[in-house]
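Dear colleagues,

For the upcoming journal club I promised to circulate an example of a predicted protein-ligand complex. I picked one with flavin-adenine dinucleotide because it came up in last month's discussion. The inputs are reproduced below in full, followed by the predicted structure.
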Amino acid sequence: MKQTADAVVIGAGIMGCAIAHALAERGLTDVVVLEKDAIGRGATADAAGGIRQQFSTETNVRLATYSVRVWETYGERFGVEIGLRQQGYLFLLTDPAEVPAFEANLALQQRLGVPARWVTPEEIAELNPAVRLDGVVGGTFCPEDGWCDTYGATVGFAQAARRLGVRFEEETPVVGIDVAGGRVVGVRTPAGEIATPLAIVCAGPYTRQVGAMAGADLPVDPYRRMSFITEPFAALPASLPMTIEFSRGLYFHPESRGFLFGMGNRDEPSSFEKTVDEAWMLATVEALVERAPAFEEASVLRGWAGFYEVTPDDNPLLGWVGEPAGLAVAAGFSGHGFMQGPAIGACLAELILDGAATTVDIAPFRPSRFAEGAPAREHNVI
Ligand SMILES: Cc1cc2nc3c(=O)[nH]c(=O)nc-3n(C[C@H](O)[C@H](O)[C@H](O)COP(=O)(O)OP(=O)(O)OC[C@H]3O[C@@H](n4cnc5c(N)ncnc54)[C@H](O)[C@@H]3O)c2cc1C
C-alpha cells in the first residue's frame, strides 16, 4: 500500500468514488480510496436507485438538477450502461395539510427550471391507473425523474478514477486518523499508515464512528430501511412512474420484470440491524395492496435491509469539518444521496481545489450549521 497521498478518501460508495473521480479529473491524482468492504457495497448497493428533483430546499434541487444532466449522459461519458429510466416521480398527497408545502416546493422547483407540475386525482389516474385514489387530494409529477442501477454508476466512477491514477484499496478499514498540531497528518489501517494532509470522510452510515477517530462530532445515524421486489409481474405496465404515497413513505416502481417497493418505518429507532423484519414486510405489502390493489396477485421474490444515513435535519454534512484542519466530509444524505453523487463530486473537488464550490452553493449544508443553530431542514424525505 502507498505510504503517502495528497488525499485519502474514506469509503468507496457513490460519494467516495464520485469525489475521487472529480479530484483526479481536476488534476489531483495522488488520491487513495480506502474501503473496509468492497466498492459500492454499502448503502449505495441497498438503494432503490431513485433519481428525483422534487425537493424543498434550493440546494437539494440544484444538486439534483446538475446530477440528472450527468446521469442522462453517463453512458457516453463513462462507457458504463446504468439503465436510466426517466419514467417520472409521482407524489400522491393524502393529507390536505401537506398541500401548501408541496405547492411552495413546486414553485421553487419550477423557478429553478425543473419541469415538475401539480396533478389532480384525474391526472394521477392517467399517469398511474393502478393507483386507488381513495383519500388522494392531488399530487406532483416530474417526468425527468426516474431511477437507474446504483452499482453500475458507482463502479463507473471508480473505474474512471482508476484510469486517472487514483488507487483503491478494498477490504482495508480505516482504524485511526492521526492529528498533530490541529491538522490531519495521516490515516491508519491494519495494512499500514498513509501520511496525508487531507482526509475526506465518505463513510455513509458509519460516518459518526469515522469522524470520532479524529475527535470530530459528525451527527450521522443509521436507520434501517427495507426494500422488496416482486416476482415478474405483467399485470401492470413496466412504463409506470415511481409512485410515492408521501404520508406513509410508501413507494413502488417497475424493476426488471417485476416491481420494487418499500415503506419507511418512521417509529423504528436508530440501529445497525440489517435483517428483514417480517412484520414490517407484511405491513408494507398491506399498504401497497391498499394503494394499488393489482398487487394482490403479485408474489414477493426477495427483500433486503440497508441503512439510511440520517442527520438531524435530513440533509448531508458537506465540506470542511473545521477541527481538525484537513478533515472534510460528504455524508449523511438521509436516504436521498445516491442521486446527488455527480454534483457532490464536482462540489467537493471545487471546495478542496478552489476554496469554494461553484457548481452548487453547498454552504447551507456546512457541517458547522448545527452548532451555529442554522439547520437546513428537507421536507421531501421518503
Ligand atoms: C433501502 C434504501 C433505499 C434507498 N433509496 C434511494 C433512492 O431511491 N435514491 C437515492 O438517491 N438514495 C437512496 N438511498 C440512499 C442512498 O443509498 C445513500 O444516500 C447513498 O448511497 C450514500 O452513499 P455514500 O457513499 O455516502 O454511502 P455508502 O454507499 O454507505 O458508502 C460508504 C462506504 O464507506 C465504507 N466505510 C465505512 N466505514 C469505513 C471505514 N472505517 N474504513 C473504510 N471504509 C469504510 C462502507 O463500507 C461503505 O462502502 C436509499 C437507501 C436505502 C437503505
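Two points we might discuss: The chain has two domains: 7-47+150-220+313-369, 89-143+224-306. Residues 219 and 311 are 6 Å apart (CA to CA).

See you all on Thursday,
B. R.
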